[in-house]
Structure formats: structure tokens, C-alpha cells
Amino acid sequence: MESNECSSISNNNIICSNNNNNGLFPLSMMNTTRYYNDGDIQFRPLEIDDYDKGYSALLCQLTEAKFTKSQYIERYNQMKKELDNYYVVVVEDKSKSKIIGTGTLMVEKKFIRGCALCGHIEDIVVDSTYRGKNLGLKMIEQLKYIGTLVGCYKLILDCDENNVKFYEKCGFVKKQAMMALYLPPQPKL
Ligand SMILES: CC(C)(COP(=O)(O)OP(=O)(O)OC[C@H]1O[C@@H](n2cnc3c(N)ncnc32)[C@H](O)[C@@H]1OP(=O)(O)O)[C@@H](O)C(=O)NCCC(=O)NCCS
Hints:
- By secondary structure, the chain is an alpha/beta fold.
- It has five helices and six strands; from the N terminus they run ββααββαβαβα.
- It has a single domain (about 1-170), classed as Gcn5-related N-acetyltransferase (GNAT) (Aminopeptidase, 3-Layer(aba) Sandwich), CATH 3.40.630.
- About 25% of the residues lie in helices and about 20% in strands.
- The longest helix has 16 residues, at about 135-150.
- The chain is globular, with a radius of gyration of 16 Å.
- Coenzyme A binds near residues 124, 131, 133, 163 and 166.
């Protein structure tokens, strides 16, 4: 596990919240041996109460992400049922009860490579007023830790060209090209 971690984080201290009964996944799946030395900054699994701590507003710094509390709870509960698929990590500034960072590891079950697991890193964002403090890098570190723990053979992600350097600092390398096709909205089934 150690060799998979970014060297620039290795001496830092990350506090992982112990108060996690409502977490999307067990706290024990996160790297709790390293902690961040600002006592108010905590990394932990997403919790059902995080809507009220600005989770939607934070995601709006990434893309369109307006949703109601009931939509949040419905989606949270769907994810929680798929226990081994969705790992949404958040960073909370406890002094403000505010979610200031988030990132998701989505685990895809494949047939290839002996029914391997592939991890998709999604929706990485750090609040604009907290950027440049290595929180993004630590978030990726936590997702890499979980991905290794659950047995993913690789982690992949799509990003804008202007974030390539950030992900390279997190240990990723550029591979192939990304393609996208946006589909027309359909009525809900
Ligand atoms: C990208 C993002 C998550 C980075 O978070 P952050 O906490 O500011 O980044 P960190 O402080 O952990 O940066 C780690 C290292 O990467 C570098 N870095 C961060 N973003 C970078 C960028 N866009 N270009 C080049 N280097 C970057 C930092 O300078 C730092 O390097 P250093 O250790 O040599 O000083 C944050 O800028 C963000 O939320 N952006 C808006 C949303 C977004 O684009 N998310 C990515 C979706 S794919």
C-alpha cells in the first residue's frame, strides 16, 4: 500500500472522522493511519447529512449540480445499497460544518482480465478557497487507497487538459483519448 501513495503526502497527517455511523461505506476502508495536521480538516465517507453542509454547492464548482435534499437522500440510499460500487469521500472543515472537498471511486465489475475490477475516479473538487493546500492530492490518495483495498487493477479518469499536471502529480499517466456522446434527456422510467 505504501508504495502506491504519493510521496508528497507521506509525512502529512490526515484526520479521518471516527463519527461515521451514517457513512456511505465503512470508515475502516479509508487510510486512517495518516492524518492531516489541521485538526478541523477531516476526510471521511459521505454521510446522509452532508447535503446540509453544502455538498451540492461544492459540486456546483465542478459542473451543473443543483439537486434537492430529497433527491440527494434518494441517490445516497441507492448508492448505499450498492455497497461495493460507490465510494464517495468528502473533506469537511469541522470548524464551519462545511464540505470543502469531495471525490468518488466507482468500481466497475468487468469480464475481461479474469473478471477484474476497474476503478473510475469521478467528481473531484476542492472548494475554491481551500485549493493549493494539497487537499486534492490527499483526496486522490484516499481513493487510491480504497481502490487498492478492493482489488482494482487500475484507476482511470477523464479530465480537462488544464488538470493533467495535477493528476500527474498524483501518479497518473496520460493514456489514449477520451470520447463522449451526450444523449438527449428522456422521461424517467
Ligand atoms: C483540480 C483540483 C481538485 C486540485 O485541488 P487542490 O487541492 O487545489 O490541489 P492540490 O493542492 O492537492 O495540488 C497538488 C499539486 O498539484 C498542483 N496542481 C493542482 N492543480 C493544478 C493544475 N490545474 N495545474 C497544474 N498543477 C496543479 C499543485 O500546485 C500541487 O503541486 P505541488 O505539490 O508541486 O505544489 C481543484 O483545483 C479543483 O477543485 N478544481 C475545480 C474542479 C475540477 O476541475 N476538478 C477536476 C475534475 S477532473
